[in-house]
Amino acid sequence: MLLPRDVLDRPIRTANPYLKTILQERAHQALQNIEIESVLVSKVRQRIRASLDRGLDIEDVCRSLHVSRPTLYRRLKREGTSYTELLTAERKQLAYRQIRQGQPVACVSDNLGFKDVSTFHRAFRRWFNQSPGALRAQTRARP
């Protein structure tokens, strides 16, 4: 639907100033909640990155954020994500970067908290449809 600018600029005769105030306050509150939740996702990602090489424990993340596990799950769900999704995204990003930098697969696996190299290798194939060695070879082949 397209309307001329002068039509859009006309005041609404049946406008309710009280309702306008309430709706503006609710919109402002919703925006603040979104910003707060985005901070939560950022903090969870930061904690994941910091603890990848020590082995991941969601309980440690919850303790550092001073929230219970169900509360963390609920807040992340409200954000449209989950702890597992954030963990996978961080691992995927770091794996790609470290393999392209030429780090040995065993070191990358350890750095990302995988139990063994074969588990990392399977995850890498699932993420990128190629082995870590193939990505490294591609990186070397590019000038």
Description:
The chain has 143 residues and is an all-alpha fold. The protein has 8 helices and no strands. The protein has helices at residues 5-9, 17-51, 58-65, 69-78, 83-100, 105-111, 117-128, 132-141. The model has no long low-confidence stretch (mean pLDDT 87).
Protein topology:
Elements: H1 5-9, H2 17-51, H3 58-65, H4 69-78, H5 83-100, H6 105-111, H7 117-128, H8 132-141
Helix pairs in contact: 2-5, 6-7
Write a compact overview of the structure shown.
This protein has 143 residues and is mainly α.
Main attributes?
single chain; 8 helices; mainly alpha; 143 residues
Unreliable sequence segments: none
Helical residue percent band? over 70%
H/E topology pattern: HHHHHHHH
**Which structural category fits the helices and strands?**
mainly alpha
Instruction: Tell me the β content.
Output: under 5%
Distance between the termini: 51 Å
Main pleated-sheet profile: none
What's the quaternary structure here? single chain
Q: What overall geometry do the principal axes of the alpha carbons give? A: elongated
**What is the radius of gyration computed over CA atoms, rounded to a whole number of angstroms?**
23 Å
SS field, number of helical segments: 8
In total, the number of strands is: 0
Mean pLDDT figure: 87
